[in-house]
Write a structure and sequence with these properties.
Thiol Ester Dehydrase, Chain A, alpha+beta, 7 helices, 6-stranded antiparallel beta sheet
């Protein structure tokens, strides 16, 4: 069924729809605005409402982190293919300014990153790329900076080939 839906509507479009309806995102007001067909560009928005507002009336830090949590991992999984293990390993968030309204994040990956991952993992060793995404408000001011460390390694059967 999932394969049929992916073929009919496109995998990126189906993923955007599924992520937007994912209960934690639905409840936090997170909306996936765009996923490119090649999974190299993702844009996410989160509004500010009673459900994600903290005690002082700004964006709750946990919601800011959750809006960006899975995307680099998903993007790498889609671009590297089934021969690779891709996991989130670590994360940090630096809160720069209060989010007093809607906030936005944009994720991009390019050939340079993918080539470096393939080169670093070619001998079967793990690689821990460190990626960063910024969260901005509607005026473009930096609200938070999130660092992600991922774990990438060829699967055992691919290491033996």
């Amino acid at each position: 069924m999932l394969d049929w839906l992916s073929k009919k509507f496109g995998k990126a479009r189906l993923m955007r729809w599924a992520m937007t309806l994912y209960p934690p995102y639905l409840g936090a007001g997170v909306r996936v605005q765009h996923i490119s067909d090649d999974f190299r560009d993702v844009r996410v928005r989160m509004g500010l409402g009673w459900y994600n507002r903290n005690y002082v009336g700004t964006q709750f830090g946990g919601s800011l982190y959750s809006m960006v949590d899975p995307f680099f991992m998903l993007m790498l999984m889609e671009n590297l293919g089934h021969r690779y293990i891709v996991w989130d390993k670590a994360a940090d968030i630096d809160f720069i300014a209060p989010g007093k309204g809607p906030v936005f994040a944009r994720f991009t990956i390019d050939d340079t990153l993918l080539d470096e991952i393939r080169r670093q993992t070619a001998d079967g060793k793990k690689y821990l790329p460190q990626l960063q995404v910024d969260i901005h408000d509607g005026a473009g001011h930096l609200v938070a900076r999130v660092g992600k460390t991922l774990y990438v390694r060829l699967k055992p059967q691919a290491r033996q080939a």
